[in-house]
Structure formats: C-alpha cells, structure tokens
Amino acid sequence: MTARFDELIHSPHRLRICAFLSGVDSGEFATVRDFLEVSDATLSKQLKILAAAGYLEISKPTGRGRVRTWLRLTDAGRSAYQDHAQALRLLVNADLQSSPSTSA
C-alpha cells in the first residue's frame, strides 16, 4: 500500500462514499444516500465522478419488483481509497508527533 493523496477521493462526499463502500461488497443507493444525508441528485453527481475515474461500478439488476441501484468499489477504487486513507493517517500521526505536549 502506498500512502498517496487522491484529489478525486478527497472531496468530503466522495471520501465518505468510499469509506462506506470499503467496508462492504456493495451498497444500495438509498442506503448510501441516507448515510451521507444528501439528496439523490447530490449523490448521483458524486457517483458519476467516481465511476468516470474507474473507482466505482454502478449496476441496476432487473428482475421482479422495484429496480434498485447497487454501488461497488472497483479494485482500483478500493486501492485508491486505501492509499488516500493511509496518507491521511500519516499526516495526522505526523501532526500529533510534532505538536508540543501540554502539561497541567
């Protein structure tokens, strides 16, 4: 794993989408929307950006009943998210180590 910032993932909504999806095989659109507390339009816009970068797969399997939209991080998306998260951890740890300690 390489610690590397990814400007595309760094956007707050896209970072939270990747964080949510990194813990599951796939997630349903409505579940992710409710987790982020955003509108359908806002989520759709962010998903299209991630999909265009090859970080996300969007599928709408057909069958009986209501069609649901499923979201899944690709291997490239999962790797990019892990690298970005590692870069953030290193930044936070470096900041904590360089901060002067306070004594009571």
Automatic annotation (TrEMBL):
Question: PANTHER family recorded for this chain?
Answer: BSL7504 PROTEIN
Organism for this UniProt entry: Kribbella italica
> Winged helix DNA-binding domain spans which residues?
14-91
Q: Which UniProt keywords apply?
A: DNA-binding
Q: Which InterPro entries match?
A: WH-like_DNA-bd_sf, WH_DNA-bd_dom, WH_DNA-bd_sf
A molecular-function term among this protein's GO annotations: DNA binding
Q: What is this protein called?
A: DNA-binding MarR family transcriptional regulator
Q: Read off the Pfam families from this record.
A: HTH_34
